Amino acid sequence: MKFRSLLLPALGALGLSLAALEPALAQDAAAPTVNKGDTAWMLVSTILVILMTIPGLALFYGGLVRTKNMLSVLMQVFAVFSLVTILWVAYGYSLAFTSGGEGVGAFIGGFSKAFLAGVTTDSTADTFTKGVAIPEMVFIAFQLTFAAITPALIVGAFAERIKFSAVMLFTALWVTVVYFPIAHMVWFSEGYLFGLGALDFAGGTVVHINSGVAGLMGALLVGKRIGYGRDLLAPHSLTLTFVGACLLWVGWFGFNAGSNLEATGGAALALLNTIVAPAAAGLAWMGVEALGKGKASLLGIASGAVAGLVAITPAAGLAGPMGSIVLGLVAGVVCYYAVTAVKNALGYDDALDVFGIHGVGGIVGAIGTGIVAAPSLGGYGVGEYSIGGQVWTQIVAVAVTLVWTGIGSLVLFKITDLIVGLRVTQDAEREGLDLADHGERAYNY
User: Fold this and answer.
1) Domain boundaries, the chain
2) In CATH, what is the architecture of 35-438?
3) pTM exceeding the 0.85 threshold for the entire prediction
4) Span 111-137, mean pLDDT?
5) Can you give the chain as a three-state secondary structure string?
6) For 149-166, how does the pLDDT look when each residue is reduced to its tens digit (9 = 90+)?
């Protein structure tokens, strides 16, 4: 009001009225501007997601394999991250976050920003869901980390028996055919699932169901490890796995709270949920394991916490803290039985339980988001919220992701097998991939 009273005399002296300026003022007020605090938060979040991949995921996976395959897993995660980084800036960002044109725009973008054409330090990103203005380069870097960690998650499913060349070729094909289109469908304003109203705050479908299903396809096609079900294939260092799990949890704050895209109460909500959900899931896994086996294990509580992180990802900025705890409890129990009873019954060798934790946890989280986001249950869903309607939309999003990545991954594994072959020789597998593929040992005594 004070500003208005000071402005009126000045306008009068110029022969203008406030009414004449109202449209321009409204337009200016509606246009988002870059905020240094938001930019700083997104830079930190980007770095945190890199931390959860290298070294977090690498150490988590590395500790779970046998000594002779430790370096191979570290190498695969590091190389996949590096490869996808280059592909993302070359054409991935453009395919995921630009208009694809009539007929295909609901499923894939175009090449208008290939090799980051038109991107400068002054360009801002239309963030597609919130209208927040941040430098486009920051948005590109943040989304790059999501694209890079997703195929890195896959390698745990067929660890200890796949060729390094196959990992690299499959990754290049997979992010192009599977990941970039799914990211476009879910997070771009013209995307098919975005248009349906599917909720995925930070990647339940895009990252976790996507990687989990691809990992399952790979495990089935590559086949079981030599001695699976007969020999002891125990983790060589649960200490390293514990360190990796802790780094994953810390890095996940960038993953989830960063997906708010601005440093506001929404980011604080996502951060709090990313604390309470995995805590609940870890305790739930520990509880059912203790009841079933008589002892609670470090691997169990760490695996449960990761399952909780996976489940809360699509709901991080949409659920209330109490709903997040419930979602974590459910994920901990369901994922425990997925990696024990279900996996044992079906007999597939998902070496590091990528499908059981990321695939199943992602499905639990994606569908559960439709429930915990309801305002009537303490959530932060907007509009005329219908739990039944939203849950159905979430189921459709899960189904589309399952079909797209399931069929796509199966075909791409077959193509990779024809070109370079998927599996190492029996001699190489017995020797260990550290020496067979890389000529190195993790430990020299």
Assistant:
1) 35-438
2) Orthogonal Bundle (1.10)
3) yes
4) 86
5) CHHHHHHHHHHHHCCCCHHHHHHHHHHHHHCCCCCHHHHHHHHHHHHHHHHHHHHHHHHHHHHHCCHHHHHHHHHHHHHHHHHHHHHHHHHHHHHHHCCCCCCCCCCCCCCCCHHHCCCCCCCEEECCCCCCEEEHHHHHHHHHHHHHHHHHHHCCCCCCCECHHHHHHHHHHHHHHHHHHHHHHHHCCCCHHHHHCCCCCCCHHHHHHHHHHHHHHHHHHHCCCCCCCCCCCCCCCHHHHHHHHHHHHHHHHHHHHHHHCCCCHHHHHHHHHHHHHHHHHHHHHHHHHHHHHCCCCHHHHHHHHHHHHHHHHHHCCCCCHHHHHHHHHHHHHHHHHHHHHHHHHHCCCCCCCHHHHHHHHHHHHHHHHHHHCCHHHCCCCCCCCCHHHHHHHHHHHHHHHHHHHHHHHHHHHHHHHHHCCCECCHHHHHHCHHHHHHCCCCCCC
6) 999 999 999 999 999 999
